[in-house]
Backbone:
C-alpha cells in the first residue's frame, strides 16, 4: 500500500486560507468542506469496480459499478469537518464514528465512542481526520476499526507531519494514506508546524 501526497493547486490555495490565523470559523469550515470534496475524488481513485450489464437508450453495454459499499469514519471531533464534502461526492456512503482521547495516566489513546454500520466488514472504509500529527490516535482508531472486521481501509488527512506518516506506515502498512499536504515537523506540544493550529477548535469555534 502507499502514501500519496496530493499537492493539488486548488487544495493548496484553499489550505492556505485555512492556515491563516486571521481566517474565521465560517471561512475555515467552507474551505475544509471544499477540500474534502476534492480529496474524495482523489481518495476514491483506486476503488475496485465490477462489470454490470445495462441497456442504454441506444444499445446494451457493459458498464461499471463499485464492488463494495463505502463507509466513512471520521475520528471525532475534527474528522467531522470532512464528512459533508465526502458525502456530497459519495452520497450512498454510510457513516461510522469513532472518538479517541488520551488517557492522562497511560498517555495512550483510548476509544470513548464508536458506532459503525453493519456493512463495515465488506466495505471500503475511508477514515477521516484533518490532522496526522504523532499518528497515535489515528493508528489506534484504525487498529480498533480492523478489530471490528474492516479489511479495506484508506486514511485521508489534510495536513500530515513526517512523524505521523512514518508511524502509520509502520503500524498499518496495508492502509493507503492520502495526504493533501506534508508539513515540516511537530513542535514540542505536538502541533504540526506550520500547520493550521487546532483543527477541532477552528472548525467548531472553540478555544
Ligand atoms: N491536531 C490538530 O488539530 N492540530 C495539530 O497541529 C496537531 C494535531
Residues:
Amino acid at each position: 500500500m502507499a502514501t500519496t501526497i496530493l499537492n493539488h493547486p486548488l487544495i493548496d490555495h484553499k489550505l492556505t486560507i485555512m492556515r491563516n490565523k486571521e481566517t474565521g470559523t465560517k471561512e475555515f469550515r467552507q474551505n475544509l468542506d471544499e477540500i474534502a470534496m476534492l480529496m474524495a475524488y482523489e481518495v476514491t481513485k483506486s476503488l475496485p469496480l465490477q462489470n454490470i450489464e445495462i441497456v442504454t437508450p441506444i444499445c446494451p453495454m457493459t458498464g461499471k459499478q463499485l464492488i463494495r459499499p463505502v463507509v466513512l469514519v471520521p475520528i471525532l471531533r475534527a474528522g467531522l469537518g470532512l464528512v459533508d464534502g465526502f458525502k456530497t461526492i459519495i452520497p450512498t456512503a454510510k457513516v461510522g464514528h469513532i472518538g479517541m482521547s488520551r488517557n492522562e495516566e497511560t498517555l495512550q489513546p483510548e476509544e470513548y465512542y464508536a458506532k459503525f454500520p453493519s456493512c463495515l466488514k465488506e466495505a471500503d472504509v475511508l477514515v477521516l481526520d484533518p490532522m496526522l500529527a504523532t499518528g497515535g490516535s489515528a493508528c489506534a482508531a484504525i487498529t480498533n476499526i480492523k478489530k471490528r472486521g474492516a479489511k479495506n481501509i484508506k486514511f485521508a488527512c489534510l495536513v500530515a507531519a513526517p512523524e505521523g506518516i512514518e508511524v502509520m506506515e509502520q503500524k498499518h502498512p496495508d492502509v493507503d494514506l492520502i495526504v493533501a499536504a506534508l508539513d515540516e515537523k511537530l513542535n514540542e506540544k505536538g502541533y504540526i508546524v506550520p500547520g493550521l493550529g487546532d483543527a477541532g477548535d477552528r472548525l467548531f469555534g472553540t478555544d
Summary: Residues 55 and 140 are 46 Å apart (CA to CA). Helices lie at 9-19, 25-43, 80-89, 136-147, 162-171, 199-204. The mean pLDDT is 97. The radius of gyration is 18 Å.
